[in-house]
Amino acid sequence: MAHENGSNGVGQLDAGASKPNPVLTLNNGRPVGDNQNSLTAGRRGPVLMEDYLLFEKMAQFNRERVPERVVHAKGSGAYGRFKVTHDISKYTSAQLFSKVGNTCETFARFSTVGGEKGSADTARDPRGFAVKFYTEEGNWDMTGNNTPIFFVRDPVKFGDFIHTQKREPQTNLKSATMMWDFWSLSPESLHQVTILFSDRGIPDGYRFMNGYGSHTFSLINDQNELVYVKWHFKPKQGTRNLSPRRAEELAGSDPDYAQRDLFHAIEKGDYPQWTVYIQVMGEDQARNYRKFNPFDLTKVWPHGEFPLIEVGELELNRNPLNYFAEVEQAAFNPVNVVPGMGFSPDKMLQARLVSYPDAHRYRIGTNYETLPVNAAKCPVMNYNRDGAMRFDGNMGAAPNYEPNSFGGPKQDERFLDRPIPLSGEPAARYNHRDDNDDYTQAGDLFRLMSEEQKNLLCHNIAQSLGQTPIRIQELQLTHFEKADPDYAKRVQKFLVESEHPDLAHSPNEAEFATRLPEK
Ligand code: NDP
Q: In whole numbers, what is the pLDDT of the chain averaged over residues?
C-alpha cells in the first residue's frame, strides 16, 4: 500500500540489490545447494526426515516470537544523542552532568500501552516514552510516558487497571464498561482520565508529544545532598494531536502510522528533538510539603511553585537496522540510574524497580542486559555468570567469586548508597485514599483548557462513557462534579445528546452478572 509520506516499507534492503550474493548457509555454516525444493522420496513422494534445511528453517520459524510485552507491546525506536546545555552539577555528581557540552548516546522507544503488537498506533491511550542514556558510568534509563501522571497511585492496583484496558474475558473485546467501572471506583484516576480524553489523548505520531519521567526521582551532589526531581521532555517540533476522526481513519488505512512517521523523518534527516528540563524539590521541602504527597504519581508539581529548569537536549538521528534485535529486544529499567541519581518513596516507582527487570527476564531472558541494544557502553565487571543465551564470553577465565585474591573487581566506597532516612511510622497497609485529593489537579487541568478543548474532552468522554451501564455513568459524573461542576455539566450534556453507539461491543450489566462464576 502506498502512503502519503512515500514509504514503501523497504528500508535499506535496496542497498544490497547490486552486490554479488554470498553463498547461503545453514546455522552451522554449511553451504546450501537448493533452497527452493524439499528433499522428497521421489518427485511426488513425502519429505525425508533428513531434510536438515527444511527442519532447521521450520524450527527457527516456530521460535521467532518472544513473549509480547504485557504493556507497551506496540512500539518504535531510534538512536540519538543527549547533550547537556545547562549546568545542574550543583544537584548531581553524575559525570554526564559534570560539564555543559557533555554528550552521550541514547536509544529511545515510544509505544502505546494497552494494544497488542499489531494494534493501531493511533489508539486513544497514553504513550510510552523510554530513553536509555549510555553514560560513561553505566546506563541510565528514563522509563516514562507522554503524561506526567498515572491512573493509580498504589502499585497493588496496577494489574487490575491494565486488565480493564485489555480484553473482556468472554468476548475478547475491548470494553468501555470495564474501563469506566474501574475508573469510577478509583477516583484517583480522574486526573489521568482527563488527559487521556483531552486532545492530547491521541498524539500525532511520536515526534510531537511531551515526555515525562512521571515518577519523582532524586539527584545527589558530591556533598551527598539530595533533591527530588521530575523530568520533562518538550518537543522542539511542538505538540500536535490527531482528531478522533483522523485517528480512526488511520487505524484502518495505516495502523503503523507512528512507526512510519518516526522512521521516515529520521531517514530524511528531519531529526526530532526535545528540550529536557527538571523540576526540583528540596529534601526538607518534600518532607514538609502539605498540599499533596509529592511522591504521589497521580499528581504533578505545579510549574508556578516548581519551575522548569533547562538541562539539555535530546535528538534522535539514527534508525535501527533490525527491528527485532534493537527495538523488540530493547529493555528499559527504571532501576538503571547512575551515581549521583536515586529514587524516591513513590510507591509506583518502587514497584516498577522490581517489576521491570522481572518482566525482561521473563520476556527475553536472564542475560537481557548483554544484548547489544541494552548493554552498557562502559566496562561491566561483576560475578554474575551463566544462564540461558550467555553469548558474550561470560567474563572468560576471570574469577567468579568474591572476595578473591586474583585481581577480580572490588567495591569502591566512593559509590556507597546514600543512607535513606526513615520515619518512625509503623509498616502497615495504609489506605492510599485517605487524605488524598483526587479532584483539584484534574479540575485545574479542565479549567486551563479553552472552550473548544473542554467540549472536545467532554464529547470524547461521553462517546465512551455512554456505552456503559447508567449506574457507572452516574457514579463517574459525581467525580467530574467534584473536579469542576462545569466539567460534569458538559459531560452530561454530551451524554444526553449522544446517540448511544452499538452496545453490543460492551457487555452491559446484566450480561456481566450472568458471567460471574457460581458460588
Ligand atoms: P501550567 O499552566 O504552568 O502548565 C499547564 C501544563 O498543562 C503545561 O505543562 C501544558 O503542557 C499542560 N497541558 C496543556 N493541555 C494539556 C492536556 N490536554 N493534557 C495534558 N497536559 C496539558 O499549570 P500547572 O503546572 O499549575 O498545572 C496545572 C495543570 O496542568 C495540572 O493540574 C496538570 O493537570 C496540568 N499539567 C501540569 C504539568 C506540570 O508538570 N506542572 C505537566 C502537564 C500537565 P505544554 O507546556 O506542553 O503546553
A: 93
How confident is the model over 47-65, as pLDDT tens digits? 999 999 999 999 999 999 9
Would you place residue 516 in the very low, low, confident or very high pLDDT band (cuts 50, 70, 90)?
Answer: very low
Check 5, 21, 72, 505 and give the catalytic one. Answer: 72
Ligand 1, atom 7, lies closest to the CA of 445
**Is 199's C-beta closer than 6 angstroms to any atom of ligand 1?**
yes
| Pocket probe mutation, ligand 1, options 202, 303, 306, 440, max atoms within 8 Å of Cβ | 303
Q: What is the pLDDT of residue 435?
A: 76
Catalytic residue among 145, 319, 336, 374: 145
Ligand 1 center from residue 265 Cα (angstroms): 27
**Would you say 112 and 166 are in contact if contact means Cβ atoms under 8 Å apart?**
no
- Give me the CATH code for the 11-180+202-379+386-395 domain, please: 2.40.180.10
Helix/strand/coil (H/E/C) assignment for every residue in 347-388:
HHHHHHHHHHHHHHHHHHCCCHHHCCCCCCCCCCCCCCCCCC
136-139: long-range contacts, CB 8 A cutoff, minimum separation 24: 136/95, 136/96, 136/104, 136/377, 136/378, 137/94, 137/95, 137/96, 137/338, 137/339, 137/378, 138/336, 138/338, 138/376, 138/378, 139/336, 139/338, 139/374, 139/376, 139/377
Any catalytic annotation for residue 72? Answer: yes
Q: How far apart are CA 135 and CA 399, in angstroms?
A: 26
Q: Which three cell numbers stand for residue 188?
A: 484517583
Whether residue 465 has its Cβ less than 6 Å from ligand 1 = no
pTM: 0.93
281 lines ligand 1 (CB under 6 A): no
Confidence of residue 500 (pLDDT cuts 50, 70, 90): low
CB atoms within 10 A of CB 446: 22
Find the 131 Cα to ligand 1 centroid distance in Å. Answer: 22
In this structure, which residue's CA is closest to atom 48 in ligand 1? 239
Distance from Cα 258 to the centre of ligand 1, integer Å: 24
Q: Could you give the percent of the chain with pLDDT greater than 90?
A: 89
Ligand 1 in reach of 175 Cβ (< 6 A): no
- What average pLDDT does the segment 478-503 reach? 87
Full 3-state SS string of 168-184: CCCCCCECHHHHHHHHH
Among the ranges given (254-263, 272-281, 296-305, 433-442), the one the predictor scored with the smallest mean pLDDT: 433-442
Q: Which class for 245: exposed (0-12), middle (13-18), buried (19 or more C-beta within 10 A)?
A: exposed
Atom 19, ligand 1: residue with shortest CA distance: 195
Report the share of the chain in percent with pLDDT over 70: 94
pLDDT at 112 over 70: yes
Is the CB–ligand 1 distance for residue 445 below 6 Å?
Answer: yes
